[in-house]
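Action item from last meeting closed. Structure (114 res):
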């Protein structure tokens, strides 16, 4: 039995250099495809984050207007929205907002380049 195992292992050989090069080249091609496909995913994420921040700022401005006392006004900036407790402590990265404190006040939400 042991002689049969030794004979079987003596006949086996490793991979040839050509086989190893083929496997390495296939893995390189697959890695290249993955890198280029992942790049598009991050771009989509930035656009989605920009749209989300715009809608969050618009909702916060409307909440500020509803919460404000008799002369209804919109918040003049993001800091006022944060002070009122309508936004978290982190400043938005992809959009900003400004409001006016006059009769018939309005607000604008300005997206960053995204």
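Sequence:
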């Amino acid at each position: 039995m042991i002689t049969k195992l030794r004979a079987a292992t003596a006949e086996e050989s490793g991979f040839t250099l050509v086989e190893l090069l083929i496997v390495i080249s296939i893995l390189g091609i697959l890695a290249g495809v993955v890198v280029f496909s992942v790049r598009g995913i991050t771009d989509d994420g930035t656009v989605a984050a920009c749209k989300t921040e715009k809608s969050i700022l618009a909702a916060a401005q409307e909440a500020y207007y509803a919460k404000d006392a008799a002369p209804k006004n919109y918040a003049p900036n993001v800091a006022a929205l944060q002070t009122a407790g309508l936004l978290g402590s982190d400043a938005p990265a992809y959009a900003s907002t400004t409001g006016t404190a006059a009769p018939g006040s309005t607000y604008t939400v300005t997206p960053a380049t995204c």
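Note appended to the action item: The chain has one domain: 18-111.
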